[in-house]
Structures are given as structure tokens and as C-alpha cells.
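User: two proteins, same treatment. go.

Assistant:
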Amino acid sequence: MSVSARAWVFVTPVLLALAVVVGYPVVRAVIMSFQKDSGLDKSTGMFVEGGGAGFSNYTHWLLQQCTNSLGETVDCPTGNLGSQFWAAIGVTLLFTVVTVVLEATIGLGMAVIMGKTFKGRALLRAAVLIPWAIPTAVTARLWEFMFQYDGVVNRIFGTHILWTADPWPARFAVIAADVWKTTPFMALLILAGLQVIPEDVYEAARVDGASAWQRFRHITLPLLKPALLVAVLFRTMDALRMYDLPAIMTQSNPATRTISMLVVDQVRQGPNSASALSVITFLLIFTVAFFLVKVLGANAVRTQEEQREAH
């Protein structure tokens, strides 16, 4: 048996498992997204099957179109989940951009500090990982207590802000909690990238008279770019699926409703329409991930070429 044939023998079971675990739910969701939700026929009062829906489930979300009691297509009224789609997209993207930028910036600083040799470094690394190790539900409840009207935050700053009720304070509260929890994960990934940078490169730069800032700008950042982009990719995909943190902290506050929360709310009303929303969410995450992977691949290859030329 050839090497390639033996490789397929070992790979085939994994591919079959992935097809069942990943492929089937995706295909099933796509099929359901083109079906109407079952319910009561308003004219007869009888329970009827949904039947084919065409693209109506998608236009319901993308164009915010609903069907009234007369069967006419109208704009979704305020309060309907369909009218909240683009607002949820905006909130999701806001959380993603702000949290990923903050976590990458702070995580980079933490990684640089943890990468240095000093007494107690192992204890510091273990302590830094504690927020990431805490379950998200516990983190959300902890920060909810802190941001209550009579909580720690208002007492420290002497303010009277409804952090989990008002729109922008609630968004800030969710961002603060997410940054606190997930920055250690970014720092850990970036630290792994820092540790593979050859020390002799820094020694050569010191001999040439490069300052600490010059070494960081011209050596650390270019060589760290692949690891940094991997960390950004993982965190971006995770942030686009954010659900439990805002759901627990701010509960039903529309100002913090993400696209994942909208999917869960819609499942309670109609699984087929929720499937269409799930497909849209999947395409959004896939598009962003594809873009980041292409950028990551280009930069990773370029950095490796520069490293080979430098050596």
C-alpha cells in the first residue's frame, strides 16, 4: 500500500465524522431556511404545515419584511424580531471591532512583559490566565453585580449610571467584561509567537545600536505578525458569535442584542426562520474568517521569506 493510500485510510474516518457532525447540521439548516414555519391558519384556525417559503425567510431578515394578517408583505413593525436584524448586526460588529482591538493591544503588552525573564514570572503567567479560565456565565454575573446601580463601579467613580439598562453604558459594560475575560487568551497566543523569535536577532540589533523601541518596531512586530493575526482570527470568530455574556449581563436590553441572541429568540417563535438567520450568520462569519485567513497567509509567507533573507 502506498503512502498516500495509507494516509487516506487514517483520514477517511475523520472526514466521515466531520461530515456527520458538521456537514449534516449545515445542510439541514439550509434546507429548513427555505421552508415556512408551521402554525395556525388564521382563516380556519387549523394547524397547518409550513410548506415552501422560497427566499421569504431571508427577505424577512435582510429587508425587514413581515406578513400582516391579510397576507400582505409590509415592513416589520417596531418590536418584531425582524425589525431588529440590522441593529443586531451593528451591535455584533461594534463588539467585535472594539473588543478585538483592545484585547490585541493589551494582550500584546501583557505578552511582552510575560516574555521577559524575572523572578515570579511563572506565578504571573498563571495569575493572568485566571480570568480566561473562569466560565463565561460566572464572569457575566460577576460583572453584572459590579455594574449594578449600587454596585462597585458607581461607588468608585461616584456616578449614578444605569450600566445594564441604558444603551451605551450597557454596551460599554459588556465590552469591559469581555476584554477582562478574553485578553489573557490573546496574550497567551501572542506570547507563543514571541518565544519563537531568535534571540540572536535582538543581540545583533543591540550591537548595531538599535533602541528598545526600534527593536520592537522593526523586529518584534514584523516577526510577531503571523501569531498576532492568528490570535485576531480566533478572537474575531469568537466575538462574532457572542451570546452568553450580553445575554446574562444585560438580559433583554435591545442595545446589546447580538445576532446570536436574535437567533435564539427566533428559535422560540419559528425554527425555519431562525435557520435562515443562522445561515446568514454563518456566511457573515465565514466571509470575515476567509478575509483574515487570506491576509494571514500573505503576511506569514512574506515574513518567512524575510527571515530566510535575514539569515
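Protein 2:
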Amino acid sequence: MAGDEIRGTALGTAPVPLSVLDLVTVGAGHTATEALRTSAALSRTAESRGYHRYWVAEHHSMPGVASSSPAVILAHLAAHTDRIRLGSGGVMLPNHAPLVIAEQFGTLEALAPGRVDLGLGRAPGTDGATAAALRRTDLPQALGSARAGGTPFDRGADDFPQQLAELIRFLDDDFPDGHPYRRVHAVPGPVQATSPGGVQSRHRPPVWLLGSSGFSARLAGTLGLPFAFAHHFSAQNTVPALDLYRDSFRPSAVLDAPYALIGVAALATEEEREARRQVLAAALNMVRLRTGRPGLVPTPEEAEAYEFSAMEREFVDSWNANVVHGTPDEVRSGLDDLQKRTGADELMITSNAHSGAVRLRSYELIADAYGLPADIRSLSGD
């Protein structure tokens, strides 16, 4: 598998390739149907403006996030796009049997050949009870672990390297002779290339490891895989994790040198005050999520009227300090500074707001600020 499939090309004046992370957010007064329509429109916009890839993140039991089924959403987006890379940012592997993920992403590869990424995380993307409901953790054990001071998904996270190895074996269809799964095949997949009369490509989606701490950074480096770090909710760990990834990196058949992207929360509006209003609403949504009251993303008006406690205000100020927001020029400057500080090879932007129209406009304004093409197809003569 060539590293060229992983590395993107910076366009316009952007220092590195720009990409999109979509949480399929649902605002108060809106429906999941509307949010998914926004995602389809955003994928087309991102493709036409020259964003490199478009990832969807797996979350569960969060009313304001409609991305519980990345593979389903990506199949829908594949029907709305032609060239942009599509992927998971990520699939939370402890929630799933590796064979199921190999089948889902083999199907996506068949739908959108050569432009699918498989990003994997080791957390469940939810709380302990929901992780248990996903049937990868026993509920009494999960609750007991939580009471003991651990996390209810420790076992699934600890098994992650084994799950990852099994998943890659299914993707490559190369379990050794004598292995219990030697005659188990992920379909669509490489087995169709080696069957009599088979003409299927053996190509499969590249695997990325995602993380918000050092565990996946070290594992990605050791395995020579590309790495994606969640700067948007773990900013204090970004530089140490990227340093660990680069120090741990060993060349592989996938990459001959490290390649790391970071997820960045960024929102551009024509006026700075409007950007502040929008990110305050998104921060209030996070306050509610962190205090066990998840809901739909509130309106800016609701956020402005909300009486934050001193502790909540401290959280909001800390959270928004890591959201690059303001006018297009301010956002461009903030993204440039972040890329210089981290040395990231790619910036994956997540623009969270109550309104889908605001999110769409933000990506357009950021593209304009960097001089990205008005329509990438015009550069290739399509």
C-alpha cells in the first residue's frame, strides 16, 4: 500500500492539506434528517473546494451527535461524492467484532474504490452503560469497574492491539494455516480476487490509529501506521503524543516516514462577535455533556441567556481557548500557528455550531482564506 494514498497535497496558501471531521451535529429545533442532509451537502462542498478527506466520528447515546453509524453515513456520502477520501474518525474498535468492521469497510471500498480510510480508536465513544449496551462489555462488570475507580471499558481498550491485529488479518485475508479463522473471509474483500474467476482488486482501505494520549501514538509508530490525534479535545497532550509517535516510528510497507494529522475545532464567520456567539453555544453543549446532561446543540441565544456557574465558566473559557474562531483571517492565522507549533502533516477541521448553514459557511470561508480553488474539478479539466 503506497504512502501516496495517505499523504495529501496542500492547496492554495495552506501550509498542509486541510480535511473535514464531521460529528453530524443536531441543533435544537432541528432533526437528524436535517443534520444528515447537511453532511451530504458539506461533503460535496469539501470535495469541490479541495479538502483532502472527510471523516465521520463514532459516538453513542448523545442526542446532539447523529454519527453513531459511520459506515452507514459513509456509504451515503460515497453516493454524493466522486473523489474526496471518505473515512472514519474513527470507528471505536472495542465496540465491534473485527470481522464486522472488515466487512463494512470492504463494502465501502467496493462502493468508493481507492478513497476509503479506516480510522480506529480504542475508547467506546460513550459512557460505560452505553458501552455495555453495545454488548462488548458486561454491565455488572462495567459498573463494578467504574466504582473501583477504573473505566468500564478497560478490558476492551487493553485488548485493542489484539483486535487490531485480527482486523488487519481479515482485511488482508492472510490468516496463517492452522489458525481458527483461516477459512473465514471478510466479503467484499481479497478472497474474491483469489477465487476461481476472481477479478476483484486486493486493495483494502489504509488503517489509521486515532488517539488522545500516548498509547495509540506509540502503537501507530511501532507499526508504521499513520496517526490522527484529537487535539480538539485533548490539546495539552498534542505535542507530547506527536513527539512519541515520531520517536516510535518504524518504516513499514504502509509508510516510510511518519504522517500525523490533528483534529482541530475551528469556526469562521464574517464577524468576530458572531463566531464568539456560535462557539459559546457549542461550549454549553459540552458543559451539559460533561455533567451528564447530554442534549441537542443549543442556540446561541440560549447560550447567551444561560447563567453559567463559576466552575462552568472556567470550563467554557478553557474549552474555547482551544477552538480557533473568529473572522476568516483570524482563523487562518490560528491554524497556521497551530500547524507550526505541532508540525502536523495535515489539519482536520471540525466546525461545530447549532446551525448547519453556519457550519457549511465556515468551511467555505476557511477555504477562501487559504485561496483554495472555487471548484477543484476546474483544475483537472473535469
